[in-house]
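Hey,

The postdoc asked me to send both predictions to you directly instead of through the lab channel. I've kept everything plain text so nothing gets mangled by the mail client. Protein one:
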Amino acid sequence: MKNIIFTIVLLSIMSCKTEQQENKIKLVTIDPGHFHAALVQKTMYEDVDSTVYVYGPEGNDIQYHLDRIEGFNSRAEDPTRWNQEVYKGTDFFAQMLKEKKGNVVVLSGNNQKKTEYIMASLQNGLSVLADKPMVINYAGFEQLIKAFETAKDKNLLLYDIMTERFEINTMLQKELSQIPELFGTLEQGSLENPAITKESVHHLFKYVSGNVLVRPTWFLDTNQQGEGIVDVMTHLVDLVQWECFPEQIIDYKKDIEILNAKRWATNLVANQFKEITKWDNPNLLFPEFLNSNVKADSTLDVFCNGEINYKIKGVHAKTSVKWDYKAPEGTGDTHYSIMRGTKSNLIIRQGKEENFQATLYIEPVIRDGIEENALLNIFKTLDKNYPGISYIKSTNGWIVKIPESLKEGHEAHFARVTQNFLSYYKNKNMPSWEIPNMIAKYYTTTKALEMVDK
């Protein structure tokens, strides 16, 4: 009798373990040419299987990805435990669909076929977590709409990686803009003086996880990576929507009006190109696919800079992205943002005066328009969700002081986004505004690109 009971208990335990294993999310990483693919795995997740299935062509891109994951696995502090099962070949995507070993596809690499991969993955019953941009032109945008329809029909999840929503200064800028006693209401602005402006400066030469980042040669080809106006600009347009109209649905057909857009090139000489890509061909300064952008003086034009002026729900917004080759010593990527309210302006600066650290300012529109006691009470309330937050006086108002405990680096934000995705995947509770707002975002960037004078 005891043996029978023991057997029943054992079978029950084994059944539970099997069920838990079957309910695990299994990641499939496709052609991971961008380092963001690895950053999704910089931490472990309770509901995600430790084995990840990686598919891609032979070459450096996939090897660099595997090396980054191995670096996470072998680090001294809080190492990860990822097991990578790898398939290499020109038919990598077809092989992935044939084997279908996972249930969530992670896409972060060459953007030329990304929208196709999104659609095919969904059609084959796989949810998708995609790095930005999901589309790099208007034709891709039209395909993306169909992809969201497919996801809905098949009860799948399609979501993009918007890390900047987790930057603490941006979070607080949004939070403070929702306090009428402090901010008032958002101005409507004008073309010359938008109500919200977001500008970011990035650098082609940079460090990731302590190492110099090797960029794929295709990263400098806007036909494969996308122009700046549809690439990094995705983050800025997303933040405009997320901060100005939190949890509101944006209808791209009636709420977005592109006023004008422009783009310009960053010029690279051959040695700079070689330094960041490790290009090594004694007979060619640049790969042949870049020939159309190589000028007579043997410099490469990379159209990674752009600016969009537009109206969203009647509010004037401006977003701009600039890429330099390398940041000055002691600096890095920078961000500037201003939200103009009827009572105060909320400004994020990251210049020399801020020691190149993002800093949030509160600057009243009318001198003495905000009482110190009112500000003190506001910050006492904020302390419940942001413990340790405070402020000090500045020349034109106040500086928001953020404790180190609330600050996270850009790389840590990938885990935050992934955790959100996993929660939506498991609980089927993605907010109703996310999908229409993703569509509105990519309409804004791709429509702006259509309007650019090339």
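Protein two:
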Amino acid sequence: MEQKHIGNSISRIDSLAKVTGEAMYPQDYYFDNMLYGMTLRSKYPYAKISIDITEAQNLPGVVRIFTNKDVPNNAHGVLHKDQLVFCEDVVRRIGDPIAFIVAETEKICEEAMNKIIVKYEVLNPILDPIEAMKEDSVKIHGDSNVLYHYKLRKGDALKALEESYYVAKNTYKTHSVDHGFLQPEAGISYVDEYGNITVIVATQYPHYDREEIAYCLNVPLENIRIINSNVGGAFGGREDLSLQVHLALATKVLNRVVKCVYSREESFVAHSKRHAMIMNYETGVNKEGYITAVKAEIIGDTGAYASWGDNVLRKAGVHATGPYVVPNVMVDSYAVYTNNPYAGAMRGFGATQVAVAYEQQMDIIAHELNMSPVEIRLKNILKVGSYTSTGQLLSNSVPLEQCLKSIAE
């Protein structure tokens, strides 16, 4: 069979439009007589709130200020509906949305924002996921801050570690990371010729956006339309809702075109981050340098909301032993609520952070056994016919040995 694409340079269908400036991003759309929207956000990571919009609402040029009272179903989230369209009586992170101002101009939106009175009763935030896991900690959602616990067991890791010639035992930490995409969040909403609430937005999941908007607004799914414009970078950061529901709500109530563009600062506080992780590792080897066991505890700070926390920490647990043959495995990974910025999808989806730990473990073991970093890896890497720690048989295409030997040369 002739391969037309593999090994050949293929022209991207959107390249010409992007290099000539013809590509349309959400902030590039303009309609006659459109309104502008702006979100008021929390200044504190954890606080009780009360809000008074009276003075701001009476400002000339302000069309409407939306709060939680205007949302039929005030909850959303890709896995767990633990986020609010607008916070009601408590904010759980810096940047939590409190109100959405719709006005004739962006300048009037800014003036109105300064006139909204938000009274904060500041509470002690939980910023350490280890503290958050304790039974006597303040609970951010429900009766436990442990959102998700993944367990992986293979063989008898504890016994194997006791019998190992050498055990590398260390704690590794990775920090929260922003996606830093070039195009901050932006969108524009209107009612189309068929009466559908339409939102033009740069998103990674237009079908999820549609479902969440329909639920929040209590509108039939067929009456919600998402147009995915050109996307100026995403890397996981556009998998959660940002301004989609705010825009759709405003258009539904006002039957007007509404546009919103985030500043870089607002983008930083609005969208999810890569999970910060604390990783406690014990890696055992025999005298020859073959891995005997891995015991790992991975604590992922999912922040104030779940987002993709379950999936990210499951994948971190699945990949905790890396590309190595490990006969005995004991892995526990946790997604934990805190009052930090909420964490979700980012390139690698949990597999990136654990690589920091298991690869440093290999270097430490190599040094202890007086081996080269390449030699210790060649002894332990997965090959065709190997089983992964989760029991998957690798039957073909495992080019790790070839790669390592090429690097060594």
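Summary for protein two, as requested: The chain has two domains: 23-123+179-270, 129-177+273-408.

Thanks,
C.
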